[in-house]
């Protein structure tokens, strides 16, 4: 989905706690909620849903706690000055004070005739007022210094208004004469006139700190004479992947090997979130080279993202990370991706976020933990995806005690509201299924089953959202 194809103006969600309005355990089927008679609502065997390995409750960290640790550690990226076009999509980091008036002179707001309001006060369609046309001026040309009683100057939009004129009569309200003009209406003084400084006065803040810079702001910056502006820059993210089974996309995988898709997917997700992402690719298996790669990433990054399988004795990555700074791998009460890692490494304490290597888990973990961190570094007020409540078209099951994130498709229902259904039955982790999804379905920790017709929280995956 893109911003242009967004399904709604969803509610603002400023907290990561999605328990408000999450799915209920059982709800009767809503007769008009979805064409349920056309869907397969066969009960799903709970034993088929993969559950995370049992972990003592005292060792499991909530999603919120892990996210708070990450957000509390991400650095504030120092503002930089960029050319205005390069600043598009970023937040302004200064109050841009105008040294010019906008407009710089009194000007016509549309095509017509500049006249004195007193001269046309009695003009009507039945009894038009006749005025002598003393000339014509267009935008960019000097106008006569003034006009006197009974005179009119033909003008185009943006043209300088002559002294003495206090109103512009639209051309369609006249006979559009060249030597003499018949005026058929009497707009009051000030109509269709832009006075100097009406838009921006000298000393006004044309663009304020924290304003997102889009086409309108770029237009205003150019108008006040600024070709460069101080902004909150895009954070530099390096994406790395760990795993002895990984080969690059240009290599034909041998039996037991898989193509590294995470470095591509996560780099793309980071760019979509607003970061300047560098795809670092597959980490080497040699300890010294691995340490060099990680140290290099720390030197040129504001945040490092590593995807892989991080079990004790599985590979060298956790050991080398710990050599560079304290790194903790913690069970998280979420599925997929129940084990996440985080540390602040190197002399500058660069945050390093470790996510699971399975592609579905990696992208879900990115949405939950990494994307909010990027938006915080960008200075965004809205850190999290906006969410909506939707009616589940099918039965959903979820492991008790874990917040479940399911890829799904959400759509408008003709009778109002939204209907959502998962892509697949939750047992597969296929890239093609994930690519068809336009949302994440969020099932709370204390919900194990949602009946068809039950309400669930849905996070639309809007590109650039």
TrEMBL record:
Residues 238-376 form the MoaB/Mog domain. Its cofactor is Mg(2+). The keyword Metal-binding applies. Residues 34-59 are annotated as: Disordered. Residues 37-48 have a biased composition (Basic and acidic residues). It catalyses: adenylyl-molybdopterin + molybdate = Mo-molybdopterin + AMP + H(+). Pathway: Cofactor biosynthesis; molybdopterin biosynthesis. CDD domains: MoeA. InterPro entries: MoaB/Mog-like_dom_sf, MoaB/Mog_dom, MoeA-like, MoeA_C_domain_IV, MoeA_C_domain_IV_sf, MoeA_linker/N, MoeA_linker/N_sf. SMART domains: MoCF_biosynth (SM00852). One of its GO terms (biological process) is Mo-molybdopterin cofactor biosynthetic process. Its EC number is 2.10.1.1. GO terms for molecular function: metal ion binding; molybdopterin molybdotransferase activity. Keywords: Magnesium, Metal-binding, Molybdenum, Molybdenum cofactor biosynthesis, Transferase. It comes from the Bacteria. One of its GO terms (cellular component) is cytosol. It holds the Pfam family MoeA_N. Belongs to the MoeA family. Catalyzes the insertion of molybdate into adenylated molybdopterin with the concomitant release of AMP. This is Molybdopterin molybdenumtransferase. The lineage of its organism: Bacteria, Bacillati, Actinomycetota, Actinomycetes, Geodermatophilales.
